[in-house]
Amino acid sequence: MSIDHEFPLSEAAARFIAAPKKNLIGGHWCEAQSGLTLDVRNPATGEVFARVPAADAADIDQAVRAARSAFESQGWRGARPIDRERWLLKLAELVEANAQELAEIETLDNGKPVTLARRVDVTQAADFLRYIAGWATKIEGSTVEASAPAFRKNEFFAYTRREPVGVVGAIIPWNFPLLMAAWKVGPALAAGCTVVLKPAEDTPLTALRFAELALEAGFPAGVLNVVTGFGHIAGAALAAHPGVNKISFTGSTQVGKLIGKAAMDNMTRVSLELGGKSPVIVLDDADPKAAAAGAANAVFFNMGQVCVAGSRLYVQRGIFDAVLEGVSAGAQKLRIGPGLDPNSQLGPLVSEKQMNRVRGYIQSGIDDGGRVLTGGERIGERGYFVKPTVLTGLGEQARIVQEEVFGPVVVATPFDDLDEVVKLANSTPYGLAASIWSNDLKRVQRLIPRIEAGTVWVNCHGVMDNALPFGGYKQSGIGREMGSSLIDHYTETKSVLMML
Ligand code: NDP
């Protein structure tokens, strides 16, 4: 097993990588019952540097039972909201205290630049845990003035309670592994649920380190269980397990649909944060330089492996050439290299499979008559590096315009008026996000209600806030994360009516 020795790891990260990896079930670290493992590769080199348990249905069953038993235990049930808040605040503190180690592990696993992993993934995970810790003490029902017309002679006292939904199955992707773990685990624990977390097979490591930190933070055994394994085996078993009350999933629309169907058989509650094909709309009053920089960042950030990546660029004709030139120049300037190199601005894609997928999409764009303005190729033969790519000259029906690429690839198209760009923007099955670049308030305000997207940014793209609901229209998902919606997701409402 090897890692990229050119850029040494901190002592803490090296120690974690070298240690045997086990699942956390009911407070115990255990191998898969089958004894099987799966290889974890460094995307910068393609080499295997760790192995984790390859769990199957038996391990998932064990974890769900452990989560159920913890859910019913006095240690967790009897804990007060303020206890859950304190444990979550402690976990946030521990994430911050171990930030460099977590960032390095994330980089080895996912490929992203370590500076980005630290600034975005780790920092936002800690901030989010703090935000959601505050919600633990703010969960409330309401008192209701009951009329009960059939019982006019009686008096009533009626109110609602919010109660934890139970055992939560969390299935997360590989693009922001630690942050996604925090997004799922934090609110579930704040609400008093217990969790079985299944990280992506390509990036299982920070979830295991996160589990260690959760134990250190004081969460009782069994409240958080982490089980690594393949999606079609361990993930599918979790989604279909009758002992799970709620599945929270982030990933592809295709798998989201499978999970939704499996969950429905048991009436398991489900929330799905799925793919996107977000348009970046530049109106002709915008500063072409600023819009080009924004559009480049919207699609190249995290190598385009972002659900809200701005992968379709629509620019009003008068400034189309200027913006396109700026985006292409921006793409060429980005420093691409191993994520552990502190000078890298972009790293490799997460896996060989993802690299081949992205290259396949670029080729399909060329086959459909698209012109490559910059990029379009793999870099070298080692690791999974692909050049940031800008294409133009493609019609709306081209595969690369309709489907989620999840790589550093943007297709640029000119438009003439607002009606035309609304039609273009809404022309895919997705509806996760969009951005509009303009200072013409009237035109911006007229556009916003017409765009089918869960989030619309103006003069920025991809800016996330813990308090703003986040989720998709159309095939981009069901439900909203962030803000008070999170508490709704992880609680049931109980109505109480007393005859006095
Ligand atoms: P998936 O949707 O397959 O993976 C997301 C998670 O679901 C992973 O933990 C995965 O496990 C698990 N999973 C896979 N199959 C099943 C199943 N049958 N039942 C339950 N869980 C399952 O995404 P991919 O990794 O395959 O990426 C493919 C594409 O998905 C990307 O190119 C991108 O377009 C999109 N995607 C979107 C994301 C988003 O944030 N919206 C994030 C990631 C991907 P395992 O890793 O073991 O397969």
Describe the fold and architecture.
This protein has helices spanning 11-18, 57-72, 74-77, 81-97, 99-110, 114-135, 177-190, 205-217, 231-240, 253-265, 288-300, 320-333, 352-367, 399-402, 418-425, 441-447, 485-489, and strands spanning 23-25, 28-30, 37-41, 48-53, 143-144, 156-164, 167-171, 194-198, 224-226, 246-250, 269-273, 279-282, 312-316, 371-374, 389-392, 409-415, 430-431, 433-437, 455-458, 473-474, 477-478, 491-499. With 500 residues, it is α/β, with parallel strands linked by helices. The protein has a seven-stranded mixed sheet, with helices on both faces. The chain has a six-stranded mixed sheet with strand order 9-8-7-10-11-21, with helices on both faces. The chain is globular. The structure holds NADPH dihydro-nicotinamide-adenine-dinucleotide phosphate (NDP). Residues 171-175, 198, 200-202, 230-232, 235-236, 239, 250-252, 255, 258-259, 273-275, 307, 357, 404, 406 line the site of NADPH dihydro-nicotinamide-adenine-dinucleotide phosphate.
User: What gross morphology would you assign?
Assistant: globular
- Gyration radius (Cα, Å) is 24 Å
Low-confidence spans:
none
Helix content: 25-40%
Average of the residue pLDDT scores = 97
Please identify the structural class as seen in this structure.
alpha/beta
Strand content: 15-25%
According to DSSP, the number of beta strands is 22
**Small ligands present:** NADPH dihydro-nicotinamide-adenine-dinucleotide phosphate
Distance between the termini: 71 Å
**Helical run tally:** 17
Give a short account of the largest sheet: 7 strands, mixed
Strand order of the largest sheet: 14-15-16-13-12-18-19
